[in-house]
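Budget justification, computational time. The allocation requested in the original proposal was used primarily to generate structure tokens for proteins on the priority list. As evidence of use, we reproduce two of the resulting records. The first is shown immediately below.
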Amino acid sequence: MLRTIVLLLILANLGFFAWSHGYLRNAGLGPATVGEPQRLRQQIHPERLSVAATTVMPDAVPASAPSHPVPAASIPVALVSKQSPAASPDSSAPAAEASSSGGAKNSVCLQLGPYLTASSAVGAALRSAGFAPVERQRPLPPQWMVLMGPYPDTDTLKRKLGELQHLGLKDGSYAAIHDRPRYMPGVSLGVLSSEAAAHAQLAMVQSKGVSSAHVVQRNLGMQATTWVLAGLTKKQAANLHKLGEGALKGKAPEACPSR
């Protein structure tokens, strides 16, 4: 039974294949032909059809990519006049730079110092006069000093100075200390650049009868302060010189060193 069904399916497929491919058309069997002549016969009034040329609309062209540059003569004069002020800032930039560079060349840089103990007072005087000083500090180089003191009061200092005078020490070989607060009131018997030289100086004064002297490092922990006033006009520089040595604590303005 199964063989019969399979045989019938094979025969049916072969028959459909022959019918669909036109092998049975001589026997009057086959599908309807749908070629081009049949489609042309089915058209209604084909003579009324016409082929139009393809036209590109202006809107289809990107505005940012013109195919031809616009001649300068065709630009309206009013439009050019409105756009011309935009170039004025660029044209004025070189002039501004020239004026600023000229001002920098004409400015003056002055400095005051170095100060050891009066720097704060000088800075306050400069600011009260309308200046804006910049503080520059540097450590003092090492020095050694033969010292007597410090003493509890100035009366003791005066007595020690008198004793040194009676010992016959040369004038100028000793002096009261005025610029080293940590050793005031005291007496300096010599300032030396090395510790060995200071001890040699100590031995010399001891040989003359000085018994209470000793060697100390004179600039220990001290810094020198210089006040810098850059970018001054000539008028401001003249006003700085007018402050006088009293406000500037004995220092005169000097030109800043070139870098």
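The second record produced under the same allocation is shown here.
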Amino acid sequence: MITLNLYEEIYEHAARKFDSIEALESVMPVVLTKEQLENHSDAFFLSVMSRRIFQAGMRHSVINSKWAHFEEVFWGFDPNKLIYIDEAFMERAMQDKGLIRHWGKLQTIPINALEMTELSKENGSFGYVIANWDQDITALWALLSKRFKRMGGKSSSYFLRMVGLDTFILTDDVVRRLITLNIIDKNPTSKKDLLIVSKTFNELREVSGRPLSHLSKLLALSLE
């Protein structure tokens, strides 16, 4: 059972790396409200999802510097337009030096656009789906991994963090910290281990009153 004392210990260790509590709090991830998430367009979510896919295994600064051009070429990432992309369009994209010409990643854009339109038809909007998610957060990771191309591994959790949904992320530092706390003994890849980790985060949230994303950041920062 996770206690308030454990949270306070984690916070204290994290705070040692900063000159002030204000400095520590300033690096906490932004968490949007349910209404803010619902108000974002599907185009916003598809753009962020695609950017995360390109960031995986590449320098984030390079991808970010090119993203305005991606937005221009791919019609603002409006999924209702991108489902009509044809082979000729993709061939032109592969010749565009302003893009990252990675065929495997480029082709996810129209594929994921179609999946997002389908999910929106089922639920009203993609933002509504994630804003109203009421199951374990790792189940949402699994849903995104199943329904969208190249959203496996850590990409789903990183994507959700990028759009402002409250989620923890299993970075190397977070995993190592959980191991030092004897919560787990190895990288949690099995469903059983993920549930143990999720239960730990949920209990930490309950005793601290802080969002999962903040607790994830604090755990990483508390690693000695």
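A brief technical remark on that second record: DSSP finds 15 helices and no strands in the chain.
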